[in-house]
């Protein structure tokens, strides 16, 4: 993700997360830390014509990684983009020497939870009222020892 991607990412962010969308400033702040040696890694998924249809971000500090965000446009869900974005984040976490990778996912989003479980993430706790203003709890999930070769989930797609 580059600075010129912020506007299309924000359009998608507001569409997908109308109640708890990140701000422009949050994305600018995150991208400021993507330089070599920085603590962040952000990527986008695009169509052939360059339209951004997904994005994801990682924070990696002192051997611990955290999935900051991962999102795919509703019209493009089910095509493997979420898996591709997650694979990128896991590989980057491994490359940065992270011993574990954490994430929060809404308790009312079983589809995302299943994706994370297929990659080996395990539930480790609940953050009450994490998503505001809707006051929705977050399920905290952890992947120990991220690998540069995350397990192949192709076998789990059964149509």
Automatic annotation (TrEMBL):
Keyword NADP attached: no
Domain N-acetyltransferase: 1-146
InterPro entries: AcTrfase_RimI/Ard1 (IPR006464), Acyl_CoA_acyltransferase (IPR016181), GNAT_dom (IPR000182), YpeA/RimI_acetyltransf (IPR050680)
Pfam families reported for this sequence: Acetyltransf_1
GO MF annotations in UniProt: N-acetyltransferase activity
PANTHER family xrefs: ACETYLTRANSFERASE (PTHR43420), ACETYLTRANSFERASE YPEA (PTHR43420:SF44)
Family in the record: Belongs to the acetyltransferase family. RimI subfamily.
Protein name from the UniProt record: Alanine acetyltransferase
Organism encoding this protein: Streptomyces rubellomurinus (strain ATCC 31215)
